[in-house]
Specification:
Largest sheet: 4 strands, mixed
Number of strands: 8
Mean pLDDT: 85
Strand order of the largest sheet: 1-4-3-2
Helix content: 25-40%
CATH architecture: Roll
Number of helices: 3
CATH topology: 2,3-Dihydroxybiphenyl 1,2-Dioxygenase, domain 1
Structural class: alpha/beta
Length: about 130
């Protein structure tokens, strides 16, 4: 069996510093500002400037989605509060796509964040069954 490891995921952004702040403040990634790298557990993101000369850069950010399962419903509230505070502290104007959506489904609660580049960050928690 091979013992391979994944390398960094490259995230292209129209505003590298704001994306780094989002990853750090909302998702608790550790940042190396000099190398523009964000790390948390097995995930490492290299943050790069959008290639404005590359025609597919804007659309490519929208086609990427990250999905995570959290163990507790309370974790979703913590992420939601961090994201709302991030938007409050950093400011948000009408041209920005950063937003949050909450979905309450029959068996789970879903929290969707959209970052500065309209990338989806999805977090799900199962709703515990109540014993009667």
């Amino acid at each position: 069996m091979m013992n391979d490891e994944f390398g960094s995921v490259f995230l292209f952004s129209q505003d590298r510093l704001r994306l780094c702040d989002f990853l750090s403040e909302v998702l608790d990634f550790e940042l190396d500002i000099e190398s523009q790298r964000a790390c948390r557990g097995p995930f490492t993101f290299d943050i790069k400037d959008s290639l404005s000369s590359h025609p597919s850069t804007a659309a490519s950010s929208e086609s990427i989605a990250f999905s995570f399962q959290v163990k507790r419903l309370e974790d979703l509230d913590i992420f939601s509060n961090k994201f709302n505070f991030f938007l409050y502290r950093k400011g948000q104007n009408s041209s920005m796509v950063e937003r949050i959506e909450v979905q309450l489904l029959k068996t789970k609660k879903v929290l969707n964040f959209y970052d500065i580049d309209n990338r989806l960050w999805r977090f799900e928690a199962m709703i515990p069954c109540e014993n009667q």
